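Illustration: Integrase zinc-binding domain-containing protein.
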Amino acid sequence: MSVSSDDEPLAQLKRKCNLRLTNFQTKINKLQLYLNDQASNNDIFMIQSKLDSVLELCAKIECLKLDYYDITEDEQIADNDAEFEKMEDDLEYLKVNVFSAEINALKKNESIKRTNVSNLNVFLDDDDLIRVGGRLTNSELSFDQKHPILLPRDHKLTDIIMEHFHIKKLHVGAQTLLHLVRQEYWPLNGRNNARIIVHECLKCYKAKPKLEEQIMASLPRERVTVSSPFSNTGIDLCGPFYIKYKNQRKGIFNKVYVAIFVCFSTRAVHLEILTDLTSDALIATLKRFFARRGICTTIFSDNATNFVDANSKLRKFYQLFKKLPEII
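Result:
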């Protein structure tokens, strides 16, 4: 392929990168021979200094490789644009070789054997290109949007068109790429082709690296052992909610909260209403809950101030009742 005036700086930079990579490789080979000689003489310190030089050279080579890959990708983009401009000849190739049987069947008003084509209600335009039918004939869209050109699956032309749209629209995702392509063309098996184009794009791969995911810890014993309902319970509060009390002359909204009790074994849920977020209101809610569901073995909660204060008050009561026989 002949290099134009715009591509000359790119070709020169590529030649410089290749030359520098060759020079670095020659230096590494010489250092390797020298290190082998020093290893026989057991000169450890000299070997260590030379190894540092080798590591520095390797780092420079990796940087040059990245620049080389970027240059290669820029050339691929330019080639892709040039191939996209020559697409009219490829469309003629589609008519002659790929969709020749379908075109002949449409000209003779016969049924098309390929179900993935016949299901699209296709027809021929003035240029003998197969276009997709549909129910958008009376819409205000353009003719290409209402009736896109049919493209074959697993074909070089389809890949060139989808790569062109992918690069032109700033490396969009697979779903957006398929939507943009279908504004003018209808590729068969287009969803999978769009995923392959995005997956094989080097810039998309660099921009979206695979992230590490934290491994979840094992569930606590209370969650995986069989027990009676609400023997192991979790509690949390939500709200506020605004309600009106019945038979009030003035409709004043009152603020209330809801305590959610969840059984760790059966996942059953029990709800209780609180008038405020104080520890006394929380203890009263626990009394109502114990009266209906029974006393719990373990209660789990967060470190909210009302939970901490209620816990300290209940511990004080427990210590007090523990000392009652001694006092009496």
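Reading the tokens back as a structure: The CA atoms of residues 9 and 220 lie 64 Å apart.
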